[in-house]
């Protein structure tokens, strides 16, 4: 049965955020809001969390997991970025974008694309997510909470708890969340390739 955390969208309660962060450190799989839509999240090195996300979403080993980072300095520990790409990503963060880039040695191999050795990274523009990342002190390993055979993600925390109570450890609810996932930009070749059009404006990368 998933714990339910009701968090204020503009002024997240520090005690509640600390409880959520402690749950993640202890191995919990959570559902939490972002600036695009709800996501599934767990600790960076949690094999159990990865396996559970794959099961819930029915993902294969070619799926790009995303490291949701607090800021650019943290993001830079996990991916390799040249100067041109650096400027393009810097100008678009924080925001509703996921960037696919070559992974550094800091990224566990189980999170990397098996052939490309890449990983997704993003910096969300969301008060609650940022509070959680600050408290956690490390990225959240994440994937969009989009269930198999459904076209849109759920937008309400209570709905997520109701439907996924048996497979999640915690749900963070800070009100209605959007239905549009992030825009995904693949920079692994050095050039921008729009892989998925979503909440972020693609015009700057075309």
From TrEMBL:
Residues 14-200 form the YrdC-like domain. Pfam families: Sua5_yciO_yrdC. It is an enzyme of class 2 (transferase). InterPro entries: DHBP_synth_RibB-like_a/b_dom (IPR017945), Sua5-like_dom (IPR006070), SUA5_domain (IPR052532). It comes from the Bacteria. Its EC number is 2.7.7.87. Keywords: Nucleotidyltransferase, Transferase. GO terms for molecular function: L-threonylcarbamoyladenylate synthase. NCBIfam families: L-threonylcarbamoyladenylate synthase. This is L-threonylcarbamoyladenylate synthase.
